[in-house]
């Protein structure tokens, strides 16, 4: 799970030019000035590139904070490993 968080931090850096260390499991959109609706699109794109995944609309809507992002990515990676 820590590996997923580290890679999520890289995606935040790519999308928002944030210091990866400033993004924690408890980070919410209010903590990141640029994490608005357009920022969410940029973040989703960065996450897709970082993890080589695609997200559906429901998953994107559930990505309300870093904890949920990590949960969704971890779940998708686990499903990918099984197939």
Question: Which helices and strands occur, and which strands form pairs?
Answer:
Blueprint: H1 2-16, H2 37-51, H3 57-62, H4 66-82
Helix pairs in contact: 1-2
Number of helices: 4
Q: Helical percent range? A: 55-70%
Class computed from helices, strands and strand pairing: mainly alpha
Oligomeric state of shown chains: single chain
How would the global form be characterised?
A: globular
Proportion of residues in extended strands: under 5%
Please provide a written account of the structure.
64% of the residues lie in helices and 0% in strands. The protein has 83 residues and is mainly α. Helix 1 packs across helix 2 (37-51). The longest helix has 17 residues, at 66-82. It is globular and about 40 Å long.
Keywords:
single chain; 83 residues; mainly alpha; 4 helices
């Amino acid at each position: 799970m820590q590996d997923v968080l580290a890679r999520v931090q890289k995606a935040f850096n790519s999308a928002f030019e944030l210091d990866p260390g400033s993004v924690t499991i408890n980070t919410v959109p209010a903590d990141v000035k640029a994490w608005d609706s357009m920022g969410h699109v940029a973040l989703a794109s960065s996450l897709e590139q970082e993890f080589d995944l695609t997200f559906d609309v429901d998953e994107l809507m559930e990505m309300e904070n870093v904890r949920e992002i990590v949960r969704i990515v971890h779940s998708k990676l686990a499903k990918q490993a099984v197939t």
